C-alpha cells in the first residue's frame, strides 16, 4: 500500500466512523425505512444461511479431528466436547460467520451503493428529498445487527453437530459424554458473548460496506476497487475488534476452564 493509497484509505475509514455517528443520530430520531429493512433482513439472513451452516459443520468436524486424538492419548477424551463448545462459542463461530458475511454481504453493499453513487442515483435520491442514510444505510445496518447473531447461534449448533458426528463415528466417544462435557464447560455468558460479538461485527461490516459505497468515485473501476477494499477493511476490523472484545470479556475473569466433570 503506497503512501497516497494509505492516506485515501484512512480518509475513507474516518468517513465510515462519521457515517456510524450519523446512523446513531438518525436512529435516535426514529428514522427507519421498514420495507427496505425487511428486504435487507431477507438478503442478509436466509440468503446467507446455507453457506454459514456448511462452513460451521466442517469447522466443528475439523476442530474435533485436531483435538480428539491428542486428548484421547492423554486420557482426557471426556473433555473433547467441552473444548469444542468453548472454542466455537467464544471465537470460531462469531468470527467465521462474520467473515462469511463480510465477503458475501459487505461486498454486495459496497457494490450496490457504489454503483448508485457513480450512476448518480444517490444524487437523485437527494433531489427527491430522500436521505440516503435513512433509505440505504440504516436498513442494511439493522439487518446485519439482527441477523448475524441468529446466524451465529445456528452455526454454533451446526458446528457442535459436526464435531459430535466425528467424535462418535471416528473416535468412538460417547455422545452422552460429549454433550455433557459441552454443557459443563459452557455457561450463559459464553453464549451472550458470542451474540454481542456477532452484533458488533454485523454493525461494522454493514457500516464499512455502505461507507465505501457512498465514497466511491471513478466509474466501474472505482466500484470494483471499493468492493475489494471494503471487504479487506471489514476483515481487518473484525479481527482487530475481536481481540479487544475478547480482552474485555474474558481476560482476568477467572481461572480458565472450570468444568464440573
State the gist of this model:
With 261 residues, the chain is an all-alpha fold.
Model description:
With 261 residues, the chain is mainly α. Helices cover 84% and strands 0% of the residues. The chain contains nine helices and no strands. It has helices spanning 3-28, 34-44, 46-73, 80-118, 121-127, 132-169, 175-185, 188-214, 219-250. Helix 2 (34-44) packs parallel to helix 3 (46-73) and helix 3 (46-73) packs antiparallel against helix 4 (80-118). It starts with a helix and ends in an 11-residue tail after the last helix. The relative contact order is 0.17. InterPro entries: ABC_MlaE_roteobac (IPR003453), Permease_MalE (IPR030802). Pfam families: MlaE. Keywords: Membrane, Transmembrane, Transmembrane helix, Transport. This is MlaE family lipid ABC transporter permease subunit. It is a multi-pass membrane protein.
Order of helices and strands: HHHHHHHHH
Biggest β-sheet strands, sense, barrel: none
Secondary structure class reads mainly alpha
Tertiary shape: elongated
Give the beta-strand count: 0
Tell me the span between the first and last alpha carbons: 51 Å
Summarize the SSE layout with pairings.
Blueprint lengths: L2 H26 L5 H11 L1 H28 L6 H39 L2 H7 L4 H38 L5 H11 L2 H27 L4 H32 L11
Helix pairs in contact: 1-6, 1-8, 2-3, 2-6, 3-4, 3-6, 4-6, 4-7, 4-8, 4-9, 6-8, 8-9
Top keywords for this entry?
261 residues, mainly alpha, 9 helices, disordered C terminus, transmembrane helix, transmembrane, transport, MlaE family lipid ABC transporter permease subunit, ABC_MlaE_roteobac
Amino acid at each position: 500500500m503506497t503512501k497516497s493509497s494509505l492516506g485515501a484509505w484512512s480518509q475513507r475509514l474516518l468517513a465510515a466512523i462519521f457515517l456510524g455517528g450519523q446512523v446513531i443520530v438518525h436512529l435516535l430520531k426514529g428514522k427507519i425505512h421498514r420495507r427496505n429493512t425487511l428486504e435487507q433482513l431477507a438478503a442478509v439472513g436466509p440468503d446467507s444461511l446455507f453457506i454459514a451452516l456448511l462452513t460451521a459443520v466442517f469447522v466443528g468436524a475439523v476442530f474435533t479431528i485436531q483435538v480428539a486424538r491428542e486428548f484421547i492419548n492423554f486420557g482426557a477424551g471426556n473433555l473433547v466436547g467441552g473444548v469444542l463448545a468453548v472454542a466455537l462459542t467464544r471465537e470460531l463461530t462469531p468470527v467465521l460467520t462474520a467473515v462469511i458475511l463480510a465477503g458475501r454481504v459487505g461486498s454486495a453493499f459496497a457494490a450496490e451503493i457504489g454503483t448508485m453513487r457513480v450512476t448518480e442515483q444517490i444524487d437523485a435520491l437527494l433531489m427527491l428529498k430522500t436521505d440516503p442514510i435513512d433509505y440505504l444505510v440504516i436498513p442494511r445496518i439493522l439487518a446485519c445487527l439482527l441477523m448475524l447473531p441468529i446466524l451465529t447461534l445456528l452455526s454454533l449448533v451446526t458446528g457442535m453437530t459436526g464435531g459430535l458426528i466425528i467424535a462418535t463415528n471416528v473416535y468412538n466417544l460417547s455422545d452422552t459424554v460429549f454433550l455433557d462435557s459441552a454443557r459443563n464447560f459452557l455457561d450463559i455468558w459464553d453464549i451472550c458473548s458470542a451474540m454481542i460479538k456477532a452484533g458488533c461485527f454485523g454493525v461494522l461490516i454493514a457500516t464499512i460496506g455502505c461507507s465505501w459505497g457512498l465514497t466511491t468515485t471513478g466509474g466501474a473501476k472505482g466500484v470494483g476497487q471499493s468492493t475489494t477494499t471494503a471487504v479487506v477493511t471489514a476483515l481487518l476490523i473484525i479481527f482487530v475488534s475481536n481481540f479487544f472484545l475478547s480482552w474485555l470479556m474474558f481476560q482476568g475473569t477467572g481461572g480458565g476452564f472450570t468444568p464440573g466433570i
